[in-house]
């Protein structure tokens, strides 16, 4: 929930003129000071104990013509990935229903494409319509989009389009050569112009420098509008990709990147995205404290694994975090939802969780 979106004196903090010097200074702050600043900004705009929960599904896997060096789905690298054709709509609906039952509010569908072909559009728009009917927010990531494709997706009911800038313009050429940074910016413009929410962020831990991490955040924050959702991915190293053996990023540098994303884009949801499986609970808790307020929930991302749902339910419980609900209620329904949320606050006796339960746990049951 955005608390301050309509409060003028707080909205003044939304800036699009961040300079490199300023952002470098944020990166050089003592860790505790930086986290305090990020937490202060976070509390002006959001409930600090609420995290948005999305579920990902790969609707078309592998055999991608692009050469993104981090990606297990590129046809150029032998990662042993089983390629799959575009999923049937019925299967997508089934998975979306499961996601809803476990408490996800947004369903994100990803395809290993450079861009959708015209003949794919009727299928993907139908998927959006059907998932939307279930009462879920919809998100897609299908590669580059033309203006017309963005409009068609918006008309089908797509709420968010994910298209990452991935890294700084300076480092970009070391990672991807088959499409340019400007291609990415153009897609983001087409998505914005079509009236959809933008989900755009990047990957850290690819061997980039601190100034590249700053450069990525400057590009995102200085867009004409801040992306409503900013996924910060820690590289998931996959055998067979050119980045398999890159050095690990110092975990505190990752947390700093989250904190600075929060400070620079105060009203955006910052997603603690890929890479959580290699993070312990304490590291994830620090990311939430730094201002991350969205995660992918479910044991699989697109092709790689994500923490088990039981682990996430337990972590939310330990931290007193509530899964964010969709906020398109009438006033009465809103009041009722608030009351339910208050009633659902964990009591001390509630802090133990039954690890023998077999049903996929729901994040809203904590
Ligand atoms: N093919 C489309 C595209 O590239 O725009 C959509 C799918 S692509 C897999 C979506 C995003 O996933 C990429 O932009 C990248 O940021 C992220 N991603 C892919 N592989 C990753 C990895 N190994 N670790 C972390 N993030 C990754
Ligand atoms: C994003 O920024 N991260 C997600 C989503 N957007 C599509 C994808 C992460 C993919 C991690 C590697 C994989 O599972 O294939
Ligand atoms: Fe293809 Fe997207 Fe992977 Fe790049 S990130 S190789 S475009 S699936």
Task: Give a concise summary.
This protein is α/β, with parallel strands linked by helices and about 375 residues long. It has helices at about 10, 20-30, 30-45, 90-100, 120-135, 145-155, 170-175, 180-195, 210-220, 250-265, 280-290, 310-320, 330-345; strands spanning about 50-60, 105-110, 135-140, 160, 195-200, 200-205, 230-235, 270, 295, 320-325.
Question: What share of the residues lie within helices?
Answer: 25-40%
Listed once per kind, the bound small molecules are: S-adenosylmethionine, 6-(5-methyl-2-OXO-imidazolidin-4-yl)-hexanoic acid, iron/sulfur cluster
Residue ranges: pLDDT <50 for 5 or more in a row?
Answer: 3-12, 328-338, 347-358
Tell me the total number of β-strands.
Answer: 10
Give the end-to-end Cα distance, rounded to a whole number of Å.
18 Å
Shape: globular
Determine Rg (CA atoms, Å).
20 Å
Order of helices and strands: HHHEHEHEHEHHEEHEHEHEHEH
CATH architecture: Alpha-Beta Barrel
Note the total helix count: 13
CATH superfamily: Aldolase class I
What is the beta-strand fraction? 5-15%
Q: Largest sheet at a glance?
A: 10 strands, parallel
Broad CATH class: Alpha Beta
* Mean pLDDT across residues: 88
* CATH topology-level fold name: TIM Barrel
Structural class: alpha/beta
Tally the structural domains. 1
